[in-house]
UniProtKB/TrEMBL annotation:
<protein>
    <submittedName>
        <fullName>MmgE/PrpD family protein</fullName>
    </submittedName>
</protein>
<dbReference type="InterPro" id="IPR045336">
    <property type="entry name" value="MmgE_PrpD_N"/>
</dbReference>
<feature type="domain" description="MmgE/PrpD C-terminal">
    <location>
        <begin position="291"/>
        <end position="448"/>
    </location>
</feature>
<dbReference type="InterPro" id="IPR042188">
    <property type="entry name" value="MmgE/PrpD_sf_2"/>
</dbReference>
<dbReference type="GO" id="GO:0016829">
    <property type="term" value="F:lyase activity"/>
</dbReference>
<feature type="domain" description="MmgE/PrpD N-terminal">
    <location>
        <begin position="49"/>
        <end position="264"/>
    </location>
</feature>
<dbReference type="InterPro" id="IPR042183">
    <property type="entry name" value="MmgE/PrpD_sf_1"/>
</dbReference>
<comment type="similarity">
    <text>Belongs to the PrpD family.</text>
</comment>
<dbReference type="Pfam" id="PF03972">
    <property type="entry name" value="MmgE_PrpD_N"/>
</dbReference>
<dbReference type="InterPro" id="IPR005656">
    <property type="entry name" value="MmgE_PrpD"/>
</dbReference>
<dbReference type="InterPro" id="IPR036148">
    <property type="entry name" value="MmgE/PrpD_sf"/>
</dbReference>
<dbReference type="InterPro" id="IPR045337">
    <property type="entry name" value="MmgE_PrpD_C"/>
</dbReference>
<dbReference type="Pfam" id="PF19305">
    <property type="entry name" value="MmgE_PrpD_C"/>
</dbReference>
């Protein structure tokens, strides 16, 4: 999948009213013929997905569920689930879905919103560099909401639908970044992947899909990512609203609600983005995060991991630490965090916590760990600056380099390092399995975690039903 430099649409350029009107008409013109092959791909019940691609999707699915389990105890997870139950009711049972790791039921859009919000706020879920954001965070909650009404859905069918959703969402992201004036959160475009996923599973027509994508693009949360970076909150990357909008858009379209064609799908400016759909499987380039921290900090964290593991650097030896990184990473939250949201959009805190604790999981970014005086002391020794050579490598990579000055006067340099977990620097399988226990250990028994891990391969077996996976993450609700 190719990517272009951001080109502002005509409405973003200074011009008189007549020029704006003419430019807008040109820019918003849709091409139904461009949509046809996309619809055939998205709605094909026998879509042929290579086995290696299905297995990659299965790994992303299980990893995302581990993050969801780890986030279940966060305040934001509790708030989201309570809100969904209180305000997202459904008149009929067939419109409800179960809240994962909870057991209560609410309307399908609300259930997906709650889980996506929960996942988004333990920032350890997968992503794709070219999208500058996250796909599975919204698609996995939608998959469970839709699959609950497909009792005979097989594991392979679910993985096929999920893979298709990843491919649609990835291209919607690149198309939006190439044509919009601002840097939008993932919810702005992963809503389209959610709508496509649902249309595939529900056997909808191309006309329904076209309207659903148009509604999802129109209502997708075009929230500004850098606002959240500057002031981190529970909003995170907008994927909760992406999941809600995606499901709502499809359900509306099924009832005859119409939507203007999605220009990120049908605009002539983005035709090249969709041209390789079904040939280039972008899901193979998704990364799995080693840590529950914004991906922009992961290049520097990899530098530190190498210095500790290979150079033997110890926290008590460090006099000062300088990080050279790309502009977006240098813009991360600079101070000592007061909240988990601030901690996850940090750079200096993430490095300090990793050095002090020797690890970086949920326990290191929540509760009393946010006020550890040892971490604060280490944080004070860290400086961050932008390095132009790393900035030009973004978004294809997340590069940084770290220089440590030791108390004995020596300097140790990491060299340039890219973030770990993607195809350029994959995590060993043992590390991915270990991450699952770190993330889910507070919510699930080790036996349940083992069962989740085994589903990564079992989902590809012809005899495995998706409900077998769902049963591991949807407990029975408490009964009065």
């Amino acid at each position: 999948m190719s990517q272009t430099v951001c080109k502002a649409p005509p409405s973003c350029v200074t011009m008189d009213h007549g020029q704006i009107l003419k430019g807008a008409i040109m820019f918003y013109a849709a091409n139904p013929r461009q949509f046809d092959p996309i619809a055939r791909f998205a709605l094909d019940p026998g879509l042929a997905v290579p086995e290696v691609v299905l297995f990659q999707t299965a790994a992303l699915l299980i990893d995302t569920l581990g993050v969801a389990a780890g986030a279940a105890a966060l305040d934001v997870g509790r708030i989201a689930r309570e809100f969904a139950c209180d305000f997202h009711g459904a008149a009929r049972e067939e419109h409800r879905a179960t809240l994962l790791f909870d057991g209560r039921r609410c309307a399908m859009p609300g259930a997906a919103w709650a889980l996506a919000t929960q996942i988004d706020n333990l920032d350890a879920h997968d992503g794709l560099n070219a999208t500058k954001g996250h796909i599975g965070c919204a698609l996995v909650p939608a998959l469970f909401a839709f699959a609950e009404h497909r009792p005979n859905l097989t594991g392979r069918q679910a993985l096929t639908a999920l893979t298709m959703g990843y491919e649609v969402a990835a291209r919607a992201a690149v198309a939006l970044h190439a044509t919009a004036c601002d840097y939008h959160t993932s919810g702005a475009w992963n809503a389209l992947g959610v709508a496509a996923l649902g249309a595939h599973l529900r056997g909808d027509t191309a006309e329904v899909l076209r309207h659903a994508l148009g509604i999802a693009e129109y209502h997708g949360p075009r929230s500004q990512m850098m606002r959240e970076i500057a002031s981190p909150t529970m909003l995170h990357d907008g994927s909760g609203m992406g999941a809600l909008v995606g499901i709502s858009s499809l359900l509306q379209a099924e009832r005859g609600f119409t939507g203007a064609p999605a220009i990120t799908v049908e605009g002539s400016e983005v035709a090249h983005v969709w041209a390789d759909l079904g040939c280039d499987w972008t899901v193979m380039r998704n990364y799995i995060k080693p840590y529950p921290i914004c991906r922009w900090a992961h290049g520097a964290l990899e530098c530190l991991r190498v210095l500790v593991a290979e150079e033997g650097v110890k926290p008590d030896q460090i006099d000062a630490l300088e990080v050279a990184t790309f502009a977006q990473s240098a813009a991360l939250f600079p101070g000592m965090p007061e909240t988990t949201s601030e901690a996850q959009y940090s750079l200096g805190f993430a490095l300090a916590a990793y050095l002090v604790h020797g690890r970086l999981g949920p326990a290191e970014i929540t509760g009393d760990a946010l006020h550890d005086p040892r971490v604060a002391a280490m944080h004070a020794r860290i400086t961050v600056r932008e390095e132009p050579r790393h900035s030009v490598r973004f978004p294809e990579g997340r590069w940084s380099d770290v220089t440590v000055r030791l108390k004995d006067g020596r300097e140790v340099h990491s060299g340039d390092r890219n973030a770990r977990g993607g195809p350029e620097a994959p995590m060993p399988e043992a590390d991915i399995r270990a991450k699952l226990s770190v993330m889910a250990g507070g919510a699930l028994t080790e036996a349940r975690i083992d069962a989740l891990w085994s589903m990564r391969r079992r989902l590809l077996d012809q005899g495995t039903e998706f409900s077998q996976l769902a049963s591991l993450v949807t407990p029975e609700p408490d009964r009065p």
